[in-house]
Amino acid sequence: MLRRFALLVGTISALALPGVHARADNADAKLLEAVRAADLRVAAIGWRLATANVPLCDQMEAGMGVVVHTLDQFDPKARDSARAHFGFATPVAIEGVIAGSPAERAGLRPDDSLVRVGPVEIAKLAGRPGTTDRLVAAQLGIAALPQDAPIEIDVIRAGAPVHVAVQPVPACRTRFELELDGGFGASADGAMVQIGSGFLDDYPDDQLAAVIAHEFAHNILRHRERLEARGVDYGLLAGFGANVKYFRQTEVQADLLSAYLLANAKYPVRASVAFWQHFGPSKAGGILRSRSHPAWRDRVATLEAEATKIDALSTRPLVPALIADRNKPLDGDWQSILVRR
Ligand SMILES: [Zn+2]
Q1: Ligand 1 mean position to 12 CA, how many Å?
Q2: pLDDT digits (tens, 9 = 90+) for 224-275
Q3: Scanning 24, 25, 34, 152, which has its CA 20 to 30 A from the CA of 284?
Q4: Where is the secretion signal located (predicted)?
Q5: Do 7 and 180 touch, CB atoms closer than 8 A?
Q6: What is the dihedral of CA 210, 69, 202, 341, to 10 degrees?
Q7: CA of 101 relative to ligand 1 center, distance in Å
Q8: Tell me, what's the pLDDT at 24?
């Protein structure tokens, strides 16, 4: 889980706001609200993908549609401002509630501080000070709750105890997180998808969804685990030797699956094509070309060809054949699944 370092030091170019020159506390409030909005934007896209693609997942959780955060995430210098702004009557609070989610229907609200979520006593979670231990423990505890029974929740809202019961919906088990670095990194480790905040500035929601869907596809296809089973090198040697064929196979598979994930969640299937036509020339061409990934123009051709196949299919959700292969070892065959321009 991410730490919000340097939050109030003004280095977050992606979230720097024009006209922030009023009193310091007012500036802090604007920045904290910008962070909340950015986190919610990513979480809402993740939620839409994770709930619309349940038939493609084999690891599920009880989906409530809340985004939680902790005071421990904030830089020590920012903690007083964060506490003053968000409340934090307990170590973990609701940063936001996704529109149309079970949490919203049950009446949960942003800045409700979590006391208890089902059997998980949030206020009693232990963790090392200054780490996100308690937040991670809360997220793992909530994710492990049964998916078909109401979840009884106690919160503190504006100083008073409030009780609600949330009827969850099944969701694929992946956490979607924003990294507040202004960058264009994106990664998937099997449990989590992380994307850099640079994408939020430069791309509309549909194309952000395409980036997130690609990373989410890596998790659904167990790519981290399967690459590790092949003994690949994630470091400087990723672009050399046998590593290349395994990385490329997972990259092409993630592109292919991302088209179905977008279609099932009713995003435009060609959002990823539009994304690459902008991102490719600026960030993945010439000397920026990665040896472990196929060339971006071939990725566009592959995505376009898959979108054309999806156009001909009217049923939803679509469950592509590569889902059935996710428990097989990677064979390194990327050549036969890549369409060249
Ligand atoms: Zn990838």
Answers
A1: 25
A2: 999 999 999 888 787 888 889 999 999 999 999 999 999 999 999 999 999 9
A3: 34
A4: 1-22
A5: yes
A6: -20
A7: 29
A8: 55
My answer on whether omega of the bond before 317 falls inside 30° of 0, hence cis, is yes
Each residue's pLDDT tens digit, 7-18: 433 334 334 444
User: How many angstroms is it from 2 CA to the middle of ligand 1?
Assistant: 20
Å from CA of 81 to ligand 1 middle: 37
Residue with tokens 């959700």: 317
The average confidence (pLDDT) of the chain is 90
Strands 120-121, 113-117: pairing is antiparallel
Evaluate if residue 5 carries a pLDDT over 50: no
Please provide the DSSP assignment of 70-125 as one string.
Answer: EGGGB-GGGHHHHHHHH--SSSEEEEEE-TTSHHHHHT--TTPEEEEETTEEGGG-
Distance 136 CA to ligand 1 centre (A): 24
Residue 277 near residue 327, CB atoms below 8 Å = no
Based on DSSP, count helices (H) and strands (E) in the chain, helices before strands. 10, 11
Q: Please, are residues 185 and 150 in contact by the beta-carbon 8 Å criterion?
A: no
Report the distance separating Cα 295 and Cα 289, nearest Å: 7
DSSP string of 115-167, one letter each residue: EEETTEEGGG----TTSSHHHHHHHHHHHTS-SSS-EEEEEEETTEEEEEEE-
- Residue 236 CA to ligand 1 center (angstroms) comes to 17
How many angstroms is it from 293 CA to the middle of ligand 1?
8
Q: Give the tens place of pLDDT for each residue, 130-154.
A: 788 899 899 999 989 999 899 999 9
* Tokens 């430069």, located at residue: 202
pLDDT at 59 over 90: yes
How many angstroms is it from 277 CA to the middle of ligand 1? 17
Phi, psi angles (nearest 5°) of residue 30: -65, -40
Nearest to 325 by CA among 242, 191, 228, 217: 217
